[in-house]
Specification:
With about 230 residues, the chain is an alpha/beta fold. The protein has one domain. The chain has seven helices and nine strands. The strands form two sheets. It has a seven-stranded mixed beta sheet with strand order 1-8-7-2-5-3-4, with helices on both faces. Strands 6-9 form a two-stranded parallel ribbon. Helix 3 links the parallel strand 3 and strand 4. The longest helix is centred in the first third of the chain and has 22 residues. The radius of gyration is 18 Å and the shape is globular. The N and C termini lie far apart (about 70 Å).
């Protein structure tokens, strides 16, 4: 009899358990608190910008496999990160990601299951939705080619976005105590603005937090650029 494959794209409220948070805490203890300090000095900046009385979307830039653990340690709250569905095709990796409360998404289009899962995360009150607007890992030190899905979800869920800039892991360092990682938290971005403005504000803030360059390309329409040039 053929074994039915687990659906990693849809998550119910009941899926965000205390055990998964404990597994996240173990990952945070193992990675940013125990292993990384052997090779990196880790600095957290801007924790005062974390909202204390409402839900929010955690949106870091993406430069290494350490990023989900660094973001979790920075925010110190349980985060359910989106991951590209291809990661879940490996059974061992899928098991680990599932244990960390990650869920699979189609990066080509925003599906109904993704919206429903985001809604269920917000229903928990305790868990935060984590999204990497850049999609995959980007080590070019440029903020560009941003996927708009995080802004669409923010507007649909009426939830602000917490921008996080991570630097120092663009290249992995294996020399003890030589590296320096900085995790900077910016002020929340309001969902109550135009889609392109949300994407633009996230890009500008993360570029400022990381000191990366911001390539203004598909994030702004030609018409909007002409309008801004006219006003200038």
């Amino acid at each position: 009899m053929e074994t039915k494959k687990k659906n990693y794209t849809k998550r119910e409220v009941s899926d965000f358990t205390e055990n998964k948070y404990k597994f996240q805490l173990f990952g945070r203890w193992l990675v940013p608190r125990t292993l990384m300090p052997i090779f990196y000095k880790i600095e957290y900046i801007g924790r005062e910008n974390i909202p204390k009385d409402k839900n929010f979307i955690v949106a870091p830039n993406h430069i290494s496999y350490f990023d989900p653990f660094l973001a979790g340690e920075a925010v110190k709250q349980p985060i359910a990160f989106m991951g590209k569905k291809e990661l879940f095709e490996n059974q061992i990796l899928a098991f680990l990601l599932d244990g960390l409360a990650c869920f699979a998404v189609n990066r080509e289009k925003l599906e109904v299951s993704t919206i429903k899962t985001a809604l269920n995360i917000f229903k928990t009150d305790r868990w935060r939705l984590g999204i990497f607007p850049q999609g995959g890992i980007r080590r070019t030190k440029k903020i560009e080619n941003i996927n708009k899905g995080f802004a669409v979800i923010a507007k649909q869920m009426k939830t602000d976005i917490l921008p996080i800039g991570i630097t120092g892991c663009e290249q992995y360092n294996w020399i003890p105590f030589k590296g320096h990682v900085k995790v900077s938290i910016g002020e929340p971005i309001s969902y109550n603005q135009e889609l392109e403005d949300i994407i633009d504000e996230w890009s500008r803030k993360v570029a400022d937090l990381t000191n990366y360059s911001y390539a203004i390309d598909e994030h702004k329409s030609i018409e909007k650029q002409k309008t801004e040039e006219t006003k200038a």
